[in-house]
Amino acid sequence: MIAKTSTAVLAALALTSAASAQAPSAKPWMNPKLSPDERAALLDKKLTLDERIGLLHGPMAIAWGKNKLPEGALGSAGFIPGLARLGIPALQETDASLGIANPGDVRPGDGATALPSGLALAATFDPKLAFEGGAMIGGEARDKGFNVLLAGGANLARDPRNGRNFEYLGEDPWLAGVMAGEAIRGVQSRKVISTLKHFSLNGQETGRTMANSVIEEGAHRESDLLAFQIAAEKGQPGSVMCAYNLVNGDYSCGNPHLLNDVLKRDWGYKGWVMSDWGAVHATDYVLKGLDQQSGEQLDGTTWFGAPLKVAVEKGEVPAARVSDATRRILRSMFAVGLFDDPQVKREIDYAANAKIAGKVARDGIVLLKNEGGLLPLVKNAKTIAVIGGYADQGVLSGGGSSQVVPPGHKGAKIALGGEGMMAAWRSMQFHSAGPIGSTPLAAIRKLGGNGQVRFDDGRYVASAVELAKGADVVVIFANQWMGEGEDAPDLSLPNGQDALIAAVAAANPKTVVVLQTGGPVAMPWLNAVGAVLEAWYAGADGGEAIADVLFGEVDAAGRLPVTFPVSIDQYPRVAAPGRGLGPKERFDVVYSEGSDVGYRRFAATGAKPLFPFGHGLSYTRFAYANLKVAGGDSLTVSFDVTNTGGRVGKDAPQVYLVDRGGKPVQRLIGFERVSLAPGETRRVTLTADPRLLASFDPVAKAWRIAPGDYAVAVGASSADLSLKGAAKVRARSLKP
Ligand code: BGC
Predict the structure, then answer these.
(1) Which of 81, 175, 338, 413 is the most exposed place for a label (fewest CB within 10 A)?
(2) CA of 150 to the centre of ligand 1 (A)
(3) Predicted local distance difference test score (pLDDT) of residue 22
(4) Atom 4 in ligand 1: which residue has the minimum CA distance?
(5) Distance between CA atoms of 604 and 523, rounded to whole angstroms?
(6) What is residue 435's predicted lDDT score, i.e. its pLDDT?
């Protein structure tokens, strides 16, 4: 389906093009030969204080209550008016990492292509797909008239119950950092600014504006901050979004250590810091590193508006700091191309874009268990029972600001209700009938044969069991809807689905469970079922992708970017912090595990997870051999990976640091996505980012590598390590 760009978009585009068409000599900042810094400095000099302040705050771009859609806004998350006098385009900001959102249908009927969830993307272990997905949604943003995409979520999954894990990229700083960086690069390759968010330690949704994340400095630098640092280096995001929560006592958006010391000083970040929506509590945040107040209606006070001007006039905020904040915004606009390549009208080829989403889905679906080769399904099975999970409606998606609605609003939307500010967001949106997408049930029918596939919606255990009994094989879908603003209370599947699966598996052990979850869930029925596929939220082409993996049209290629625990007792915070507290009660979330997030802590405690980080079965087999480890300033690891099975397949061999100078550790230091024909061998060579070998010394403010023998292991997951080797690494100290 091809959509026409709206009139509002065209009006905005016309303004931008007219502005940039003026003579470059009158506007020296329009000289593309100058650096973005030079151009931003030239332009900033022309602005009055009021004009600068105008760029430092903006409203939500939706109509709600007595708030009208701001003039000139296309309608979405946010809007910063431009300046026609000097040809500065407005910032038209939209969510998010998984596609272009349309909150409250503010742009009537304007759907978009949904990428699979962030965890599905991370499960591909394929930075090229992260780039491609980013470029796709960046392209859609641009073609709709948006120039800032609030994408780039890189918080580590420290708690499997976190309601936004699905938007992020798992529990490992290297994997999350690389994938976020590539996704951001992809977005910005379409001349649309991407953010990197939510900086930092926005590790749970429960009481997210009252939660004080407590962590030691070194541990923070080696974990969540490292993911952000890598993503910032690789992606060069135009903007970083600070978070709702506090970090070590200061709100993230008013946290001088995080924003001024770490981000801007230590990392030399040149873009701007925008607030999360409703995360600003005072004007002096500008002195603490915040450059722009977003979604200002949610704060009640436009702190970065009139009060900022008063503060400048009183000398409380230096005018130079206001200029600095302004230059940072303009610099990113120049660096990403907002001035030089104004948007032009373009129709969107949703069918082509859905195919990109489909590639991510196919490569990110993880085959967790496959007893006796139950999968792939044979095409001539007599009867396939498909049960539950709204498999006749589409594939599930996650809720909140990242919610994408398919083009033409096709796909069922089932309200969950509830109370409070997020209640309106709480609905299960299914992606089903996009330009090439169909429901999982229809896609299974296409491959399994129309007559053979029977469906039961799973509401009644008795009828599901009856159908399962008479079938050759059962495919049961189980859903866990997750959304912004709330965490799961535990790791169960809601609405009695655990009991349904147990009953169905008892009736027919040839049961395949397809999970559509926001993150890890417990599986009390695991021993009774034959196979388990984790399909995450599979996006625009998800139905076909699930069917293709079930029937082996493609290899099962995903690998877990998060540990699946046996139970929540294996995590440091069994009782969820903040649960049951009033909305104004402050509480601490003590990250006592430090940088031992996920599999690292499992390695440290010796606990056995249900499925380890990095795990994922294939329909073929892979073997690793001929390991070579070279030391020096870092570690360079090379080895052969061979497809020893009978069909084409995809692997993601992983390299872990397992010992530093006699002290056991576990850290992913490299991975590579390979696609191999049967019998084919590929030599993989990876050099570790030295920070992955180091410890962060908070006193010296430096990464320190102690000299000694560093041992590595290569394997198919964090718990399946087949090759081991070691080399000597020199002592080093690296800047923060
Ligand atoms: C979310 C951000 C989002 C913003 C704008 C906030 O509630 O935390 O991720 O970008 O809203 O929609």
Answers:
(1) 413
(2) 8
(3) 46
(4) 277
(5) 24
(6) 62
Q: Which of 106, 205, 208, 277 to mutate to test the pocket of ligand 1 (most atoms within 8 A of CB)?
A: 277
Ligand 1 atom with the smallest distance to the CA of 243 is: 8
In this structure, the residue with its CA closest to atom 8 of ligand 1 is: 276
Question: Cα(331)–Cα(592) distance, rounded to whole angstroms?
Answer: 39
Using CA atoms, how far apart are residues 646 and 660, in angstroms rounded to an integer?
Answer: 38
Quick check: helix, strand or coil at residue 374? coil
Q: From ligand 1's centre to the CA of 706, what distance in Å?
A: 41
DSSP class of residue 69 equals P
487 is catalytic: no
- Two tokens at 46? 């022309």
Structure tokens at 330: 């303009």
Give me 516's structure tokens. 């559509």
* Distance of alpha carbon 577 from alpha carbon 392, whole angstroms: 37
- Grouping H, G, I as helix, E, B as strand and the rest as coil, residue 169 is coil
Ligand 1 atom nearest to CA at 202:
8
- Whether the CB of 229 sits within 6 Å of ligand 1: no
Question: Which of these is catalytic: 110, 276, 456, 689?
Answer: 276
Tell me how far the alpha carbon of residue 276 lies from the centroid of ligand 1, in angstroms: 6
CB-ligand 1 contact for 150 (6 Å cutoff):
yes
Cα–Cα dist 626/683, whole Å? 9
How far CA 227 is from CA of 59, 115, 196, 198, 318, in Å, comes to 30, 21, 10, 11, 33
pLDDT of 260: 98
Q: Relative to the CA of 244, which ligand 1 atom is closest? A: 8
Q: What six digits make up the tokens of 586?
A: 């402050």
**How far from the centroid of its chain's Cα atoms is residue 597's Cα?**
17
Distance 632 CA to ligand 1 centre (A): 44
- Nearest to residue 617, comparing CAs of 639, 648, 650? 650
Regarding the beta carbon of 486 and ligand 1, being less than 6 Å apart is answered no
The stretches in the chain having pLDDT less than 50 are 1-24
Distance from residue 454's CA to the centre of ligand 1 (Å): 41
Which pLDDT does position 411 carry in this prediction? 77
**CB of 288 within 8 A of CB of 268?**
no
Strand 473-479 with 511-516, pairing: parallel
At 409 the pLDDT is 67
**SS3 at position 165:** helix
Rg, the chain, Cα only: 25
The confidence score (pLDDT) of residue 408 equals 77
